[in-house]
Amino acid sequence: MCMEQIVQQIEAYKQEIAAFAPATAADLEQYRIKFLGTKGIVKALLSEMKQVPNDRKKEFGQLLNAFKVLAEEKYTQFEALKDGEHAAAGDTDFTLPAAPHRLGTRHPISIVRNKIIGIFERLGFTIAEGPEIEDDWHNFTALNLPENHPARDMQDTFFISKNPDWLLRTQTSSAQVRVMEEGKLPIRVISPGRVYRNETISARAHCFFHQVEGLYIDENVSFADLKQTLYHFVKEMFGENVGVRFRPSYFPFTEPSAEMDISCFICGGKGCAVCKHTGWVEILGCGMVHPKVLANCGIDPEKYTGFAFGMGIERITMLKYQIKDLRLFSENDTRFLEQFQESY
Ligand code: DAH
After folding, report:
1. Model's pTM, two decimal places?
2. Please, how many CA atoms are within 13 Å of residue 83, restricted to the half-sphere of its CB?
3. Where is the Aminoacyl-transfer RNA synthetases class-II family profile domain (predicted)?
4. CB distance 286 to ligand 1 below 6 Å
């Protein structure tokens, strides 16, 4: 190598050394071997001294010596550090991408609620939420459940002691009443939200849970519209092959009233523990809005008809993901919550 080439080479090495920032002790050891080892660059350059003409020996010697000091200083800067401290002590490269920030996962109740909302939004329903602290009128009386009506017993209620007219809503049906009272027709809304009941907490019951209420009011709305809407919902939510059946039922705010079952998708209708060997599981209550309810909310029952439905989000979530204990939803155990990775 001629002198000028060596000088150029040293410049390149200097830049390499300046940029060097070991991430680990192993990186530093590699550096030591490369520059300072017995077969390393510093030794190799020093051996070139023999070939340097006498008149340039001093100049070249100084250059080499400065290079050796530079290479050694870099090494001693990092030598005493432990693994993991190297990069922090060196010239940090701020252009590197940041360590990924781990995001949390959505709660399964939120995932299912958002899926339900999505299905009905695509049918033209909008969202109308009501308050969780309700008055007697919106939660019961307007819904054809006057004081002392025996059906009030179906929903064990938390009353607010300061004002006996206030309570924690027992059903999202109360939101229906508020929307109807606004009087803007036609109405096509869903009301997702939390409801409260004075139940002993167990694997199958809780003192709070979530519902989605649906309401559709217009001229000439029929039971056929109700069935078609709910058929569509079931296919979107549970898949094409799920069977649906309606059973007559009773709710004070609908006439006629029904409960809707879907064929058990766990056993395919053959019978298992989830469907209690019937092949069917109940998922919601529904019916045609009672003319008294329409009148209570200022809507002319001679002109308008409508349907309503209400479903429990926990129930659908438990079926969809085969969760056996309701308490898991409110215990905030991250081992449970992290299993639901959907970004919905
Ligand atoms: N509110 C009822 C409940 O909590 C569910 C329900 C049934 C809602 C029938 C409705 C309906 O709108 O039409 O058990």
Report:
1. 0.72
2. 3
3. 121-319
4. yes
